[in-house]
Design brief:
- The chain has about 160 residues and is of the alpha+beta class.
- It has a domain at about 45-150: GIY-YIG endonuclease, CATH 3.40.1440.
- About 50% of the residues lie in helices and about 15% in strands.
- The protein has six helices and four strands; from the N terminus they run αβααββααβα.
- The protein has a four-stranded antiparallel β-sheet, with helices on both faces.
- The radius of gyration is 22 Å and the shape is elongated.
């Protein structure tokens, strides 16, 4: 009788280990899949410096008094600000990404990003449009981008993203 009890306990423990390992593996694969999607989206977008961004922001094709080109091309999405001097990321979302990126580099966004930029750190900017990203909401896209770039644990982000 004792042998059957031991066998039953061993089989139960093995079954639990297999279930736990399966759940862990599924989560790992899901995270890996999302990271590849985010990197794919980010790598297929233009990477520019703040100076290039300001130049694009100020360009107008309509002459004096016409709005800048950038103001007519705003879009919903996320942006990735990378401080290459400190190897730190900031990820944010906006319904008007161009306006929000501009705010960060003119002192109306994340104060730490602005301070580092103001004191000479080198930054690059990437922007990902929500449309055709494969994500349903800005919150999902932002949360997964923060996770991919680890900008909460070792970057400028103070939260893991909106829920």
């Amino acid at each position: 009788m004792d042998a059957w009890l031991i066998v039953l306990i061993v089989v139960t423990v093995l079954f639990c280990v297999i279930l736990c390992w399966g759940a862990y593996y599924r989560n790992y694969r899901k995270k890996e899949y999302i990271n590849k999607r985010i990197y794919g989206l980010a790598n297929n977008t233009l990477e520019i410096t703040p100076q290039e961004f300001f130049s694009l922001r100020n360009t107008s094709f309509g002459g004096k008094g016409s709005p800048s080109y950038a103001l007519t091309k705003n879009f919903a999405g996320v942006y990735i600000l990378f401080n290459s001097t400190k190897n730190m990321y900031y990820v944010g979302q906006a319904k008007e990404v161009l306006n929000r990126v501009n705010a960060h580099f003119t002192g109306k966004g994340n104060g730490d990003v602005y301070a580092d930029f103001k004191y000479g750190d080198n930054f690059t900017i990437k922007m990902i449009a929500l449309e055709k990203s494969g994500f349903k909401t800005l919150n999902d896209l932002e949360r997964n981008t923060i996770m991919t770039y680890d900008s909460f644990a070792s970057g400028y982000n103070k939260t893991r993203g909106n829920r």
